[in-house]
Amino acid sequence: MKSSLKSNHLINEKSPYLLQHAHNPVDWYSWKQEAFDKAKREDKPIFLSIGYSTCHWCHVMEKESFEDEEVATLLNENFVCIKVDREERPDIDNMYMTVCQMITGTGGWPLTIIMTPDKKPFFAATYIPKKSRFGLVGMLDLIPRINDVWEKRKNEILTSADEIIKSLKNYYVVSKGKYLNESILRDAYGELLNRYDDNYGGFGNPPKFPTPHNLLFLLRYWKRTGHANALQMVEKTLNAMRMGGIWDHVGFGFHRYSTDEFWLIPHYEKMLYDQAMLAMAYTEIFQATGKEEYKDTAKQIFEYVLRDMRHPEGGFYSAEDADSEGEEGKFYLWTEREIKEALGDESELIIKIFNVSKEGNYMDEIAAKRTKKNILHLKKPLSEWARELKIPLEDLNRQMEKSTKKLFELREKRVHPQKDDKILTDWNGLMIAALAKAAKVFNNEDYIKAAKLAVEFILNKMVDHENCLFHRYREGEAAIFGFLDDYTFYVWGLLELYETTFEVKYLQKAIEFNQYTIEHFWDKENGGFYTTSDSAESLLVRQKVSYDGAIPSGNSVAMLNLLRLARICGDNKLETKSAELGKAFSKDINNLPSSHTQLLAAFDFVFGPSFEVVIVGDLDSADMKKMIRALRENYTPNKVVIHRPLEKSPDITKISPFTKDMNPIDNKATAYVCQNYSCNQPTKDPLVMLKLLNVKKN
Hints:
The protein has 27 helices and 21 strands. With about 700 residues, the protein is of the alpha+beta class. The protein has four domains: about 160 residues, Glutaredoxin; about 325 residues, Glycosyltransferase (Alpha/alpha barrel), CATH 1.50.10.10; about 90 residues, no CATH class; about 80 residues, Glutaredoxin (3-Layer(aba) Sandwich), CATH 3.40.30. The chain has a five-stranded mixed sheet with strand order 1-3-2-4-5, with helices on both faces. A four-stranded mixed sheet has the order 19-18-20-21, sandwiched between helices.
């Protein structure tokens, strides 16, 4: 049982994950020097456990082992125990996750590492049960075995640990390749096509993750080539996810992934980064197709985030848990009876459309039986239901909205999943970018206000006197110096917000933080950006990552940031830096193009056509608003847009000197469309501007 009286060394931490373990009988330390000093002094190995607050199996292992006095006694006697929140310290997590994958061939959370007092790993695993079962060695058997080997064969352990470190260092060696050509985009498309699920959308076998950067790449590939299949893959995937149980049909937002191929049964965490990246995907597919259902989904994602995931002063929280009242998904599941009681005569339609049954569609995996609980999901779009039921789609949408609102109000009375209310700069950067992008496309002032508040939150609370970003904020404390992702994702958000508002202060901040990134993260010998700055804590290796995982890599985002800033500022040095970055990782990209889809979005920009559009005139004038609307309602991803006001020497001309002599025609809103380092004749006609951007209008 959890003790409410005795606490361990985690009690004064800010991380919700670490605080969850602050009353375990395990004598946990956070990642601090005192723990390593203690291990050296007592000649004990370190038991490192890495997870995050919304991780279901982390909760299972805590309840089963870390709250158990028998296991805790063994751990305390034989190890110095350290807990790490992977979201606070992605550098530690990424390094030891690589170790786990090297040793075991797999990975996941909770991540368990046993290592020497000088941080060298010699054992790795993920979830470990208390007692051995089904071929899994349990904690009660594992700990004595490790202790026996440590006492009797320590030299073998040290030799093994040194070999692992040698392999780890080799893993992170990135040797420069050649400049890539346009064929790499075709190769990535081919790999995605081979992994694509024709039946249900998405890529690969279950568990199926959203990986929206794959979809953003495919949209660009469709734009470049006209391949209808690339667009079809995006549409089918986004539609299938929106109909499935991975989407919260009552309160909105996406769960973290689907455990099956149908997108039906989710892992119920809701992560801020998923909401941001998926909102971008639905926004862009709306631009590309004009289909209102995509716009509606993007807006519902933002409704969820702005309602449930926002700090009163504007920053965004990290995640919501999968569990409530000790059960995964309990908050989101419904019995047929609950729906009938809540909706009365309205329930028949909801039960039919959402595939609710008396016996339920949700299995208890341990008992291997149905639970009478249902995951709400659609087997066909509402447009098909409207035709089948002979109801106008507008009326059906209105009825569904009315009924789901009643279910939402009822669900609000349930015990909510725990919210991880720490604020991370990198994930906030993604949400700022998503809000700003959607504000442009949907002409939504509320999204602009939300993005601005989040930007100011970070500037006011998460930047030190030397213009250095902090990674995490919680309960009044900003801590942990920023990682590459913090800088690059925040710069991405600032760039999107500049192109939405044309307020130069956001562009200036983007330039400042981009320059800081170059100065403190760039690998001067081999190119590319390190994960950590030159002043960060020294770990076993200084990592440099190019591949895109659940979210894009910092290097992927950095490359496109560099290109956009180069074109906005007319700065060839930034363009050269982006080329060096691409060359630094070209071998890795060639080896597996489809694992670098966000990075390839930057290459898509490089290969062109890409444009610089300078619009000159009064933002409040009717003709300028018409010009901007024409720019934003069409899908043209590979461009930067700069606004030059009418006054004689506006601030933008100091940042973008080439705009200095760009003047309006007849005092009307005027567009200068530039490509391949030269500008076309200016035009005050939005249709001519679109033609210069290769936009075909019907």
